[in-house]
């Protein structure tokens, strides 16, 4: 990674990961399985969710990982909620913040607290088909190849610098559900691999280009 001034930052041994999740936590489960291997180079130290009933919280509890709920309903407005999320994340002193099925947009004020250290996944080959319906939109467009992307989060919606991508073919007879299930499998593998590499070797962001190591 690099600081806002452009100077590379050396990777921290045993990087601390904080995972933000809204749903069942399949990506979190994959990261928790990976972090059991000391050679992975990173460990999930905290889970933050916007939903009290999120399955990801159960996974964290079972794994002995601290978790916290920061629900929008508990805050006066969106700005206050973003500050609450930032404070909750900061408690864990993360090296990297990983969005794993987190279904809310984080404000620039949050990203400023963790510059170039927030990573997200998207179920399409960005910059094509950004937004909440990437699988549906790709299928409707008639592409023969789609996939998934790991990217650094910036102020836009799925517009941050791309770190890694994997292609997934669109099969004859695919509907949104069947295609999405295959993308999820690829997405979990790509996220685990990419986060591990970034944690072990560091990430440099130069404009739109990224480099691991």
From TrEMBL:
Q: Which Gene3D superfamilies match?
A: Formyl transferase, N-terminal domain (3.40.50.170)
The entry sums up its family as follows: Belongs to the GART family.
List ligand-binding residues for (6R)-10-formyltetrahydrofolate: 78, 103-106, 120
Site note Raises pKa of active site His, residues: 158
Q: Which UniProt keywords are present, listed alphabetically? A: Purine biosynthesis, Transferase
Active site (UniProt): 122 (proton donor)
InterPro entries on file? Formyl_transf_N (IPR002376), Formyl_transf_N_sf (IPR036477), GART (IPR004607), GART_AS (IPR001555)
Q: Which catalytic reaction applies to this protein?
A: N(1)-(5-phospho-beta-D-ribosyl)glycinamide + (6R)-10-formyltetrahydrofolate = N(2)-formyl-N(1)-(5-phospho-beta-D-ribosyl)glycinamide + (6S)-5,6,7,8-tetrahydrofolate + H(+)
Domain (Formyl transferase N-terminal): give its ranges. 16-195
UniProt KW Zinc keyword: no
Matching PANTHER family, A to Z? PHOSPHORIBOSYLGLYCINAMIDE FORMYLTRANSFERASE
> What is the protein named?
Phosphoribosylglycinamide formyltransferase
Q: Which CDD domains match?
A: FMT_core_GART
Q: Which EC number(s) does UniProt give?
A: 2.1.2.2
Q: In which pathway does it act?
A: Purine metabolism; IMP biosynthesis via de novo pathway; N(2)-formyl-N(1)-(5-phospho-D-ribosyl)glycinamide from N(1)-(5-phospho-D-ribosyl)glycinamide (10-formyl THF route): step 1/1
Q: Which Pfam family, giving just one, matches this sequence?
A: Formyl_trans_N
The Gene Ontology terms for molecular function here are: phosphoribosylglycinamide formyltransferase activity
The biological processes this protein is annotated with in GO are: 'de novo' IMP biosynthetic process
Organism of this sequence: Isoptericola dokdonensis DS-3
- Residues binding N(1)-(5-phospho-beta-D-ribosyl)glycinamide: 25-27
